[in-house]
Every structure is written in structure tokens, then in C-alpha cells.
Amino acid sequence: MLNPYEVLGVNQYASEEEIKRAYKEKARQYSGDIAMLNDLDIAYDTIIMNLHRNGATNNGNYYAYDDFSDIRERLNAGRIDDAETLLDGIPVGRRNAEWFFMKGTIQQRRGWLESAAESFQRATQLDPSNREYRNAYENISRSRSGNFGTHNTDYKENSGCLNSPCKLCSSLLCADCCCECFGGDFIRCC
Length: 190
Prior knowledge:
- The protein is an all-alpha fold.
- It has helices at residues 4-8, 16-29, 34-54, 69-76, 80-88, 97-109, 113-126, 131-145, 165-181.
- α5 runs antiparallel to α6 (97-109).
- The chain starts with a helix and ends in a 9-residue tail after the last helix.
């Protein structure tokens, strides 16, 4: 693997601002070279992740862990592993409601609904006034219980698996998908 500092053209004692500036300059310089841009991305991510993982810049100043915009950007770009690496690099004592919300988002995207629900619940407990955290927790709680739509007041816990119209439709669509996997078609219009 190439030395990330050499790829960006900075020394190992460069500040985060110098690293960002060098990355932007090199990205402009090599805008048409996809292989070089890929190397630049890897080098930049490696250096920044190491800085965040250590919790300090090379000059010893600690980061403020209340700005998760770079982690949100990675999540929005589908770079879940990168986002999780940055997130897990934040020391336990500095993990706030936003940290738990981001962790829950990563867990949800990976399909780990129980863990995601716990993380969203913790975020909501730490910051109960945050509507985004509360919505995430409520949505995942509904999806875990099978109530994807609005609350059905007529539904009783022990009333059978197909008593709810939502569950009936879900079951029919699931049966159609299974039939189509084996070459059949249960519902012709879908």
C-alpha cells in the first residue's frame, strides 16, 4: 500500500486543514485520472480516520465530537464501513446522542434492527427533544413489531396472523415473491 502522506504530498505532522487543502488541490490536479483519484480518496480517508481514531490531531488538540457531518456524508454516499470506522474511533466518554443516532443508522442499514432500536432508544433518552431521534426510534419500533402503517386499534395480539388487512396483503405479496422465485406467478398483476 502506498504511503498516504506521500500520495497527498504532506508530512506526517500536517494539520487537518493542511491535509484537506492538499487533498483538494490534488483532486483538482488529477480530476480525469480515476485511479489516482481513488488513491487520493484512500489516502485522505486513512489519514483522517487515524486522526479521529486517536481522538486528536497531530498537534495534540482534541476534536469536538459534536459535528458528525463527515460521518453523515459518508452514510449518504453509502460508505457505511468508512462511517462506522470514524464513529467507532470516538472515545466512549465522548459518545453523545448524535453518536448513538449515527450508530443506529449504520446498524439499521445493515439489517441489525434490534441493535439499531437500542441505539435509537439511547439517542432519544440522551436528547428527548430531538424529533429526528424520536422518529427513528418510533419507525424502527413499528417495523420490528410488524406495524408498518398507522396504528391499528382493532388489532389484538392473539387474534391470528392474518386478521389485519396489512398482514394479509403482506402475506400475499410474500407468497407472490416466493412463487416468482420458483418460476411461477401467484398474483399476475404484480
